[in-house]
Design goal:
The complex is a heterodimer. By secondary structure, chain A is an alpha/beta fold. Chain A contains 13 helices and 14 strands. In chain B, a hairpin with a 4-residue loop joins strand 1 and strand 2. The chains are: A alpha/beta, B mainly alpha.
């Protein structure tokens, strides 16, 4: 059975269409990442799932229940970390979790849940004194009460430091291991890559892609970047020849002794062979797969704008080696946010 | 049904607010202090009975004053202040997303908020009455419990009516600012304008009837319409019911009436009180003010996008 089924959902506010004819199915047990720039309609979609807002048209089914008519049944089995929420300033952390326990009518020890999100020490403090990250954890604790079948997390790591974001990922993964369906939105792309089975990319209220990360890579025109250190200068003719090769989208000099080549992976060998055939010694080369950011931009900006411009600011910040270093970039990206 | 969870949350939240602490202290000083002043200082031992304060009515014909009326004004203000931000405030901070992402329906939210905030107001009020009660005992005042206890209950109901009105406004308003303005405006209507408007409407009707060639309305009819409209005000309904506890039905309807009203209504009430001026009818008005604002608020809240 599908955990979430959106069929032709449109939501118009007075003068804006926030979500337009959105159809999407998330299977049970799946970890689904919902990506898109701010204002793309992610939160509106999530608000529709929770009956916070009502769709203008279309049907929404969550855990087999109609999201509008049977919202209570939906929320009884769903844990939610909303976006743009706030805590009750005068209530302690424990009182918040007790409120969740009371509302869900379950028998759960609030302290155990607080322990799990790392708030045990702050349980007796008023939540009004919590930092942004602590508020986020507190809401997560409330969401986890009663072991929900579905977790809906809207921008879960906003306000968290890198360690907090990592813990959040670990909790998401352990929930997924338990069989919980996880639906979460983010504009922090590396997070999605780290935990998601599939992602959906939303742009301007429309779903522009739904696939696994690998599938998206294959389908998008955000190619891998090949970084080649050469032993001799490369002439303009050769550069032109390289650009003419099948599968190569861009070739640029990177100083006197290096080249950046945007190409699909099949073309890598051809590029290197062509260089060597022309008497240019290849000292070293490394490839960098298209980062999720490239993919993301490729889908959310004008087609092809990304892969062809390795020198722009976004691409320049990328790691220069294999993509295992992407994790570091992820941490850096979060710090800077 | 998880309205209990919401009510408990509301109570726990509101009970920690400084506004409530202030209100409780105020009730203790106001009700307790008035009792101490009246029965400890002003009134000699012979006159020490509850009705001399809690049933205190002074009527100068055009202007009337009563202790229940004053208490009602203050209570109305405090109860409105306790509830008017209960939904708009949560909307503006975003805590309503926590409230409604849990399996609480919007009906649970309304009922829970109404009961939680009512409990808080009633608790503060009861503290005031308890202090007064201690003063009554200490000064050896005749208690007249048969009137005093129902009056406490009536006062609590009035508090709930204004909690309901504030909550209704909060559900209808789209921002805290809007709710604040609407609450202030409505309070002004209840406290100041209602009486004049009630007296004005029969005059208008009379004028309209004359213009339409139907002739002037009988004075008794005009006065009855005006008084009926006045009783629709929860403050007035409460004040009249409180007077009835001490002075009986007919007298209670005249203690704060103008001379004109007394002249017109006195003879009518001598025979019998029409059902639309009866105690039960006034009580029904008070109950309607408890139920209707919450109901209207729920109706709007249920349809709204957050």
């Amino acid at each position: 059975m599908a955990a979430i089924e959106l069929d032709g959902v449109t939501k118009r506010f007075e003068d804006v269409t926030a979500v337009s004819d959105l159809s999407l199915t998330v299977e049970e047990g799946e970890v689904f990442g919902f990506l898109g720039p701010n204002g793309a309609g992610k939160s509106t979609t999530i608000n529709v799932l929770l009956d916070f807002v009502r769709p203008t048209s279309g049907t929404v089914t969550v855990l087999g229940h109609d999201a509008r008519e049977e919202s209570i049944a939906v929320r009884e089995r769903t844990g939610v970390l909303p976006e743009g929420f706030d805590v009750y300033d005068r209530l302690t952390g424990r009182a918040h979790v007790e409120f969740a326990v009371d509302s869900k009518e379950v028998d759960v020890d609030p302290d155990a849940v607080l322990e799990r999100v790392g708030l045990a020490d702050a349980a007796d403090r008023k939540a009004g004194g919590y930092s942004k990250g602590m508020r986020q954890r507190l809401a997560l604790a409330m969401a986890l009460v009663g072991d929900p079948d579905l977790l809906i997390l809207d921008e879960p790591s906003s306000g968290l430091d890198p360690a907090g974001a990592k813990e959040m990922r670990e909790i998401v993964l352990s929930e997924a291991d338990r069989g919980t369906t996880v639906f979460f939105s983010s504009h922090i792309l590396e997070q999605v890559e780290a935990v998601c089975d599939r992602v959906g990319i939303l742009r301007g209220g429309e779903l522009v892609a739904v696939d696994s990360i690998d599938g998206l890579r294959g389908a998008s025109d955000a190619d891998a970047t090949l970084h080649i250190t050469v032993g001799a200068a490369v002439g303009d003719d050769l550069l032109a020849e390289l650009r003419g090769l099948t599968g190569v989208s861009s070739v640029d000099r990177d100083g006197d002794d290096a080249l950046r080549v945007g190409c699909d992976s099949d073309a890598k060998t051809t590029v290197v062979t062509t260089l060597e055939d022309d008497g240019i010694p290849v000292d070293d080369f490394s490839t960098q797969e298209a980062s999720l950011e490239d993919l993301f931009l490729a889908y959310t900006e004008d087609d092809g704008a990304v892969a062809d411009s390795p020198d722009d600011g976004e691409a320049g910040a990328k790691v220069d080696d294999d993509h295992h270093e992407t994790d570091d970039t992820a941490e850096n990206a979060e710090v800077s946010r | 049904m998880s309205w209990q969870a919401v009510a408990r949350k509301e109570f726990r939240d509101a009970i920690r607010s400084r506004w409530l602490h202030g209100s409780t202290l105020f009730f203790a000083l106001f009700i307790g202090g008035a009792a101490a002043l009246f029965f400890g200082v002003l009134i000699g031992p012979d006159g020490r009975q509850v009705s001399n304060l809690f049933g205190f009515f002074a009527n100068l014909g055009v202007f009337s004053f009563s202790f229940p009326g004053l208490l009602a004004l203050v209570l109305g203000f405090i109860a409105l202040s306790t509830s008017y931000g209960s939904i708009t405030g949560e909307r503006e901070t975003g805590s309503i997303k926590l409230l409604l992402s849990l399996p609480n329906s919007r009906l649970d939210a309304m009922i829970g908020k109404f009961l939680g905030r009512s409990a808080v107001v009633v608790a503060a009020l009861l503290v005031g009455f308890l202090v007064a009660f201690a003063v009554l005992i200490a000064t050896g005042t005749r208690l007249e419990l048969g009137s005093f206890v129902p009056q406490v209950a009536l006062t609590a109901l009035l508090g709930m009516a204004f909690v309901s009105i504030g909550l209704g406004i909060s559900a209808l308003a789209s921002s805290n600012r809007e709710a604040t303005l609407a609450t202030m405006g409505l309070y002004l209507v209840f406290a100041v304008l209602w009486g004049s408007v009630s007296e004005g409407i029969p005059k208008l009707l009379n004028y309209a009837a004359e213009q339409a060639g139907m002739g002037a309305l009988a004075v008794a009819t005009r006065v009855q319409i005006g008084v009926f409209l006045k009783y629709l005000n929860p403050l007035k309904a409460y004040e009249t019911l409180a007077a009835q506890l001490y002075y009986g039905a007919a007298q209670a309807r005249l203690v704060s009436a103008t001379f004109g009203e007394q002249n017109a209504l006195g003879p009518i009430f001598q025979e019998s009180i029409p059902f639309y001026f009866s105690g039960w009818f006034l009580f029904a008005i008070l109950l309607a003010w408890i139920v209707l604002p919450v109901a209207v608020g729920y109706w709007a809240f249920e349809r709204a996008d957050l």
